[in-house]
Amino acid sequence: MNSAKPVFFATLLGIIALAGLLLFKGREPDKTAGGELVFHCAAGLRLPVSEIVERYEEEFGITVRPHFAGSGELASQLEVAGGDLYLPADVSYIKSTREKGLVQEAIPATYLTAGLVVAKGNPKNIRTIADLAKKEVRVSLANPSAAIGKFTKKVLASVGQWDGIEANATVFKFTVNDIAQDVSTGAADAAIVWDAVAGLFENLDFVHLPEFDQRRKTATVGVLQSSHHPTMALKFARYLTSSDRGLQSFAKHGFDVVDGDPWDPYPEIKFFSGSMLRPAIEQQLRLFEEREGVRVLSEYEGCGTLVSMMNAGATPDAYFSCDLQFLDQVQDRFEKGTVVAKNDMVLVVKKGNPKQLTGLKDLLRSDLKVGLAHAQKSALGKLSNDLLTKRGLLKDLESTGNIEILASKGDELANQMQLGALDAAIIYRSNALSSDQILEQCEIIELAKDAYATQPYAVHRETPHKQLLLRLEQFLTGTEGKAQFLKYGFHWKLAP
Predict the structure, then answer these.
(1) d(Cα 380, Cα 326) in Å, to the nearest integer?
(2) 114-213: CATH architecture
(3) In what order do the strands lie in the sheet with 217-224?
(4) How far from 470 is each of 265, 305, 466, 476, 478, CA to CA, in Å?
(5) Where exactly does CATH 3.40.190.10 map onto the chain?
(6) Which end of the chain, N or C, is less packed with Cβ atoms under 10 Å?
(7) pTM for the whole thing?
(8) What count of other Cβ atoms lies within 10 Å of the Cβ of residue 135?
(9) Do residues 395 and 348 make contact, with C-beta atoms less than 8 angstroms apart?
(10) Which pLDDT tens digit goes with each residue over 173-185?
(11) Nearest-angstrom CA–CA distance, 63 and 33
(12) What is the spatial distance between Cα 193 and Cα 427, in angstroms, rounded to a whole number?
């Protein structure tokens, strides 16, 4: 017996076992990874956020270093201080810092409604904005650098009350917690604070004001462009905003929370896409997976085939359709689609156009090999049939015997053209531009302006990953994503 065999098999079994262990560990929370996240957070959210941070550090071994201050004060520091995450009390700060290129992804966490806070029992009967302008009422206001201060000034100015109330203010403080504390200690009679902050003080009452009730705000966590650990930061942001982790802490402390995704450290999403979109989105999907630490299971097919799969029971989390009419067929399962782009249909012919084809009518000539997409399997086929029917050409073309192939999707026709198996084919412009090799063998003949498809992106109504899929949409249609669409001949339709 060869003595080397037992050693070889033992070594092989050891390698297999080690690989299995590593694979298993890769799906478990990594408590040994270490690392640190710098988290800039509005002071009014201190209580639930501190609780969430403590639990996250214990569960994942990641240090999260929160810095609490007014939302505006934090925003002014981001360019200098850097960091990983920013959670202001008002989404307007996320919008403004995003415009400056400081924030990338953003996930909503909780709603905030401003109103009056007064001593228990409201002994001075302060019930309206106008009451705050009375001489005998001492008011504590937040500095406009804080989210509550900025919002208070905006609302009061809009109803013509800012000047009178500002003159009546006894003090200006930098955070919402500070002005609520003034009322709690008797240093002021009233202040305008967030509802959840008022609930932290047992000796205070909260008085709703219609002027503020109509304008509730959303506290939204953003991942900073300066983050050296974006995947780590996004994981914490998902934890903070998850329905069964971070949002439970917000709700426990009286916050009105958003409809967040359930927590999953390694989410998987099923993504259906018309094959014509593949050149424009495939690279961005891979980048999204890497950045978010998630897995996207992509299915690229003709949209007729995808609709058939859904009718047979397939349930994708998101569907990027080749054309609106193929979303319409399954619209009852999806949220309203966002129209992103449109893609021209073109006629492709062999390089040099040896058959001298100039348009759709020329496809009726004898001795041609023409490729069309299948009308039931793809949006391209349905739209091609509609176009030919509109021009009064479909029946005549079918009777010529020129139709050599009915493909299930446009890229199959592009491949057949590249191989020289067809004289002409109707495909999408993105099919023709998907590789340099196709253009080396073929050339494009433009069709009429009404020959195009419109591409909507839609999220499934019952997916557990709605927030994640909204971020995927933003990632696919952001600056880099838009550039990919334009590179492959799409026309941009997404509204600013």
Answers:
(1) 11
(2) 3-Layer(aba) Sandwich (3.40)
(3) 63-69, 36-42, 85-87, 217-224, 103-112, 256-257
(4) 18, 25, 6, 10, 12
(5) 36-110+218-257, 114-213, 266-496
(6) C
(7) 0.85
(8) 7
(9) no
(10) 889 999 999 999 9
(11) 10
(12) 59
> Among 310, 216, 243, which residue's Cα sits nearest to residue 468?
243
Longest dimension (CA), the chain: 104
**Three-state secondary-structure class, residue 226:** coil
Both tokens assigned to 488: 């492959």
Yes or no: say if 489 and 430 are a contact pair by the CB < 8 Å rule: yes
Q: Which amino acid is at 94?
A: I
> 266-496 sits in which CATH class?
alpha beta
pLDDT in tens, 343-378: 999 999 999 999 999 999 999 999 899 999 999 999
CA-to-CA separations, 286 to 59, 85, 269, 282, 322, in angstroms, rounded: 28, 23, 13, 7, 20
116-168 pLDDT tens trace: 999 999 999 999 999 999 989 999 999 888 899 999 999 999 999 898 898 88
| Spatial CA neighbour of 379 closest among 447, 291, 277, 476 | 277
Intra-chain end-to-end CA distance of the chain, in Å: 75
Contact between residue 271 and residue 298 where contact means Cβ atoms under 8 Å apart? yes
Tokens standing for 62? 């990641």
For 216, other C-beta atoms within 10 Å of its C-beta total: 13
Query: Which residues, 6 or more positions from 431, have their beta carbon under 8 angstroms from its beta carbon?
Result: 276, 410, 411, 413, 414, 438
Domain 36-110+218-257 has CATH 3.40.190.10: yes
What is d(CA 333, CA 310) in angstroms, rounded to the nearest whole number? 10
